[in-house]
Hints:
Elements: E1 4-9, H1 11-14, H2 22-29, E2 35-40, H3 46-56, E3 71-75, H4 95-105, E4 112-116, H5 123-128, H6 144-161, E5 165-166, H7 168-172, H8 178-182, H9 191-207
Parallel strand pairs: 1-2, 1-3, 3-4, 4-5
Helix pairs in contact: 2-9, 3-4, 4-6
Amino acid sequence: MRPKIYLFGDSITEESFSDGGWGASLANHFARTADVVLRGYSGYNTRWAMKVMEKVFPAEMNVGGGRSPLAVTVFYGANDACLPDRSSAFQHVPIDEYKQNLHAIKRWPSTHVILITPPPIDEVARLLRHSFDENPSNLPERTNEAAGNYAKACVAVAGECRVPVVDLWTRMQQFPYWGKTYLRDGLHLTLGGNKIVFEEVIGKLHEVGLSLETLPADLPFINTIDHMNPLNAFKE
């Protein structure tokens, strides 16, 4: 059986199999070596993620219950970082609990877990997404400062757990006009934003030894099959 790479996260993960999405690009990249499994849940925070772990990873997370995933990306924090006194307060998770939840999600000894921080927030763009009826305070439900605090917490957890981390919040802001270039609504990714996530995740997987060069291909490639006796390629 092919090994599996799970993508676990919120809407930015759920949308990752869309045209040009970072998850779709991963599936294409590992087309003959690993199955990329989408487990993204729009609007979820780490508190809710902890409640659904048994359903998301039924056999793989139980000792002796099946083959553990080859790798898991954990991409949460954008909803945890919603401010507790604004329109999306029900999604807010305090930063200390967020860190504890990230620690708890990393539970497979043989699986490479890659944490991904929340992206930066374009606050002006977020305001344009909501009508006055939805947001009478006329204040963004997220701020870039709050997202940055959760990103730093995610990086800290990665250090404590000794796992790779993609610091998306910092990475995107290294470029000019990042808000419009990488975010389509101040939060979710454009094609350019998806490309950055894909490249960063591929880089982290390579760092832990997971690449096309190290993973065996699924069945023989056509250029290795003897055209004079092709069935020889499929002998045990």
